[in-house]
Amino acid sequence: MTSPPRTDIILYTSGTPNGQKASITLEELGLHYEAKNIQISKNVQKESWFLRINPNGRIPAIVDKTPAPNCQAREKRIFESGALMLYLCQRYDPQNQLNYPYDTDEYWEVVEWLVWMQSGLGPMQASQKLLERPFWGLGGQANHFYRYAPEKIEYGIKRYQTETRRLYQVLEDRLAEQLAQKAAAGSNEEGPWIVGDRMTIADIANFAWVNWAEWAGIDVKPFELLNQWLDRINERSAVKRGLDVPEPFMMKEKLKSKEGEEEYAQHHSRWVIKGQEADQKKHG
Q1: Crossing angle of helices 154-184/224-234, nearest 10°?
Q2: Does residue 101 sit in helix, strand or coil?
Q3: H helical segments located in the chain
């Protein structure tokens, strides 16, 4: 296996599921990058300099200053986590460690599950999407009603937690299908994974949200294969490093005590609601 290229990448991020998707991908590929902590609570993502990188004012985003193969200087911005992951694999993963060769069946399956997460699991669970999108529209449902709503509306909590569990079952069924195919082939390889015989960016993208399940009030343990898949990914060294970008990942530790949970929730809910009110005033 050849060494990864020496890259010059700046990652603009925060400690949220979408941010962790980017940092885990960079760590798994062994790429050199510098992480810049975008303090969403201070609305840094809406400052003019950042809007030139991502006009939508969201994290994560990267600026890739790695010289072209002909040594010509270049500076490429990429925003939206799914696009960012695909870009990194296309440009810096020639051995397909986290994806499959372009236009193979497996490649398009990875794209399917990546888009499925972006359009379904992420917005519905939105474990921390409200931290990135204070005015959430359709997204942010399970987490908003469970953690941030000024009034606890039981209907909202049940409705969106139930839908998130349904999506978890989709993943559970997919892993069961993959496990059956693995057994039929007599494979002793690690797995199952969402696509094929390896962990891909489809796994990383979905993992980043499922790993925040308890923050949305959802227990993963009833989903046996999903829980094993979650543990398997959490054990990877690169994943551990990626979770701690740009600062240590403290959510699970905070939830071990009632006091820590309340402190963590209050800290985030104050500026989530404040951000929502600011967007409503500007765009309402």
Answers
A1: 80
A2: coil
A3: 17-29, 48-51, 81-92, 105-116, 122-125, 129-132, 141-143, 154-184, 201-210, 224-234, 237-243, 251-254, 258-283
Residue type at position 178: Q
Which is nearest to 129 in space by CA: 58, 192, 191, 54? Answer: 58
Ramachandran category for residue 10: left, alpha or beta (phi over 0 → left; psi -120 to 50 → alpha): beta
Could you tell me which of 126, 98, 269 has the C-alpha nearest to residue 198? 98
CB-count burial class (<10 Å; 0-12, 13-18, 19+) for 241: middle
Contact yes or no for 195/113 (Cβ under 8 A):
yes
Q: HSE on the CB side for 126, CA within 13 Å?
A: 27
Rounded-to-integer distance, Cα 121 and Cα 88, Å: 22
Q: What span, in angstroms and rounded, lies between the C-alpha atoms of 273 and 126?
A: 15
Tens digit of pLDDT per residue, the chain (284 long)? 567 778 999 999 999 999 999 999 999 999 999 999 999 888 899 999 999 999 999 999 999 999 988 888 999 999 999 999 999 999 999 999 999 999 999 999 999 999 999 998 988 776 333 433 333 332 344 454 455 555 566 766 778 788 899 999 999 999 999 999 999 999 999 999 999 999 999 999 999 999 999 988 899 999 999 999 999 999 999 999 999 999 999 999 998 998 988 888 777 666 666 666 777 778 87
The amino acid occupying position 133 is: R
Phi and psi (nearest 5°) for 26?
-60, -40
| DSSP assignment string, 190-253 | S---SSTTS--HHHHHHHHHHTTGGGGT---TTSHHHHHHHHHHHT-HHHHHHHTSSS---HHH
